[in-house]
Design a protein that fits this description.
- The two termini are 40 Å apart.
- 15% of the residues lie in helices and 43% in strands.
- Strands 6, 8, 9, 11, 14, 15, 17, 20, 22 and 23 form a 10-stranded antiparallel β-sheet that branches.
- It contains 7 helices and 37 strands.
- β8 and β9 (229-233) form a beta hairpin.
- It is α+β, with helices and mostly antiparallel strands and 608 residues long.
């Protein structure tokens, strides 16, 4: 069934009015952009392109353009500024195109943000910004103009200038533990507080939310809070697990605090904390194009405890890693850092934490990797872990001074995506339901299984970005179970011969090895005796990308026929994932050989 579509048509008067309005918005916006939150970049990028699209060369108060008109280098005074920049670039006048772009950016956008202007992904002008929290991208299509020709037909292309998509946000828990039992046994009166950040974009409509919490040990009890409001507690009968549903009333737009207070349960359960299976899920619709967040920074949760803390942070980078830097803000005497790769743990260094702020530079990390026969490329497109011991770690210890992992503790990774620039494309993340689970585990673990699979579809229109999984795992200490992970028929990991992964809490893959195929894809896990997964509380997500435009199609005898064809092709491309709320169509009149200059996709990216 075709979705509702809305085409946009402007008269000359409407164009001029829109231009003046857009300029006014930009002038007002530039006075407060430095104080707004990152989502405001969406408006600056879109408004800037609107100005360049609607403002004519003859109307522009520009020294660069005036000089080129006088010199005869610009003759089409009815061109929009965007068309003129593209025409200069296509004709090889890169310097002139860059000068005009730089002049207008200086007029309408603040100096404290990074900006890049591109044509068909080639940079026209870039103002770098090394430190940033968000990247926003907006695109426009610019077509050639033909005059005084006999009409032989019409061809059209279309771009969705405003969309709404159904999306899923998953905030997975990390493996974080601290003693709640003293040596050799008994309650040490310690309580471990862990807080995760659940960020919900401003322009969203919540559909549903749920929160699954699993303690590090089955006997541990806990209380759950959302934004300081009590949600509920576990009981001894919950066996260290609890699922909370219908939480929309506790949530707001922006940052939300999801806090769990882990407490002593009973003897022989020495550690409170998260075993890595906990997760928060929000299903929503949004008009935001990019919702993957900042892929460069992997933030640590906030942790408070009166015992030493072991924090195992899983890292998954979809791309080629160029550098890694680590920043910690802690309350502790010292911090030891290790990394875990393919089941093996490697020491990096131990640092004094009396100042509270610690840094591990890329040079330090690269040196530690090299000493173990690894490099940054060893970490590409797979899960690895950084392990932080906040003071010398003991699973059982007497309650002592407070230890904290505070705000702005994160792993910063500069990486290059293997599929090119992902900003400006529509990203969609979908939960993948479990397809099958077999070979039930024995004993008191009848809800756990050893053979599991998930299935999802990849269409010709989508670009697979990554498949991620968070698993509710069970390992029987002292066993040596076989482990196999497959993408379709491709073996991603296998023990033996690779080392045993004791905490198979996270696993993911990208298309680096052509692991995705068009059509039905199968992701499967097979374990030997001694390892099991609970399918009820395990998550698999598939993230893919969509372009928000279609190129020129067939030739039609009427303008309306060409437009309808372009809009239908765009609708088919976006499929059931994205609704094109507003569509702009470009139509070209054909007579024999069309006269068009080549670059057509104009894009602005803003780093802030």
């Amino acid at each position: 069934m075709a979705k509702a579509r809305k085409s946009v048509y402007f008269t000359i008067d409407a164009l001029l009015s829109a231009s003046l309005l857009a300029i006014g918005v930009l002038l007002l916006s530039s006075s407060y952009i430095s104080e707004t939150t990152p989502p405001s970049n969406n408006y600056f990028a879109g408004d800037f392109l609107a100005v360049l699209s609607n403002l004519k060369v003859r109307e522009a108060n520009s020294s660069s353009i005036s000089e080129m008109i006088v010199s005869g280098d610009i003759t089409k005074l009815n061109n929009s500024i965007l068309e003129q920049i593209g025409e200069l670039w296509a004709e090889g006048n890169e310097a002139e195109a860059r000068n005009i772009t730089q002049e207008f950016i200086g007029l309408y956008l603040p100096e404290n943000i990074g900006i890049g202007f591109y044509i068909d992904d080639e940079p026209v002008y870039v103002r770098e910004k090394t430190n940033y929290n968000s990247v926003t991208s907006r695109r426009r299509l610019v077509s050639g103009i033909q005059k005084n020709r006999t009409t032989d037909g019409f061809v059209a292309r279309a771009i969705a200038i405003r969309t709404r998509k159904n999306n899923s946000l998953v905030v997975p828990g990390d493996v974080i533990t601290s003693a709640v039992e003293k040596s050799p046994s008994g309650n040490n009166q310690n309580q471990v507080n862990i807080t995760y950040d659940v960020y919900i974009p401003d322009n969203t409509t919540l559909l549903g939310s749920r929160w699954f919490i699993e303690a590090a040990w089955s006997g541990i009890r806990f209380d759950a809070y959302l934004n300081g409001q009590f949600v509920g507690s576990s009981s001894p009968s919950d066996n260290g697990q609890k699922n909370f549903n219908d939480l929309n009333a506790y949530l707001g737009k922006g940052h939300n605090n999801a806090s769990v207070l882990f407490k002593f349960g009973n003897a022989n359960n020495p550690e409170g904390g998260d075993d890595g299976a906990s997760h928060f899920v929000v299903n929503y619709t949004t008009t935001a194009v990019n919702t993957l967040g900042n892929l460069n920074k992997k933030y640590l949760a906030l942790v408070n405890s009166n015992a030493s803390v072991r924090y195992k942070k899983p890292i998954f980078v979809a791309g080629n890693i160029n550098s890694i830097n680590i920043y910690l803000n802690v309350t502790a005497q010292n911090v030891s850092l290790n990394y875990t790769l393919d089941g093996n743990n490697y020491f990096i260094s131990k640092k004094n934490a009396s100042s509270g702020n610690l840094t591990w530079s890329n040079d330090e990390i690269v040196s530690a990797l090299a000493s173990n026969g690894h490099s940054l490329s060893s970490l590409n497109n797979k899960y690895f872990w950084f392990v932080f011991d906040i003071d010398t770690y003991n699973a059982r210890e007497t309650k002592g001074p407070g230890r904290q992992v505070r705000k702005n503790s994160y792993v910063e990774i500069d990486a290059t995506s293997t599929i090119g620039n992902i900003y400006g494309m529509i990203d969609v993340t979908k939960l993948v339901p479990v397809y099958s689970y077999q070979t039930q585990c024995s004993g008191g673990f009848s809800d756990f299984y050893r053979n599991l699979s998930w299935r999802f579809n990849v269409s010709n229109y989508t670009i697979p970005f990554m498949t991620d999984s968070q698993l509710a795992w069970l390992y029987l200490t002292g066993t040596d179970p076989s482990q196999v992970a497959k993408a379709n028929q491709n073996v991603l990991y296998q023990h033996p011969a690779s080392p045993l992964i004791r905490e198979f809490a996270r696993f993911g893959y990208t298309n680096e090895g052509s692991y995705f195929v068009n059509g039905i894809n199968n992701y499967s896990l097979v374990f030997g005796s001694g390892y099991c997964i609970d399918p009820r509380y395990s998550l698999v997500t598939h993230t893919f990308l969509l372009n928000n435009f279609v190129g020129y199609g067939g030739t039609f005898s009427s303008l309306a026929g060409a437009k309808d064809d372009a809009e239908q092709r765009l609708d088919d491309k976006l499929g059931d994932f994205v609704n094109a709320v507003e569509i702009s169509s470009d139509v070209i009149v054909l007579s024999r050989i069309p006269s068009m200059w080549g670059p057509s996709v104009m894009e602005i990216r803003i780093w802030q």
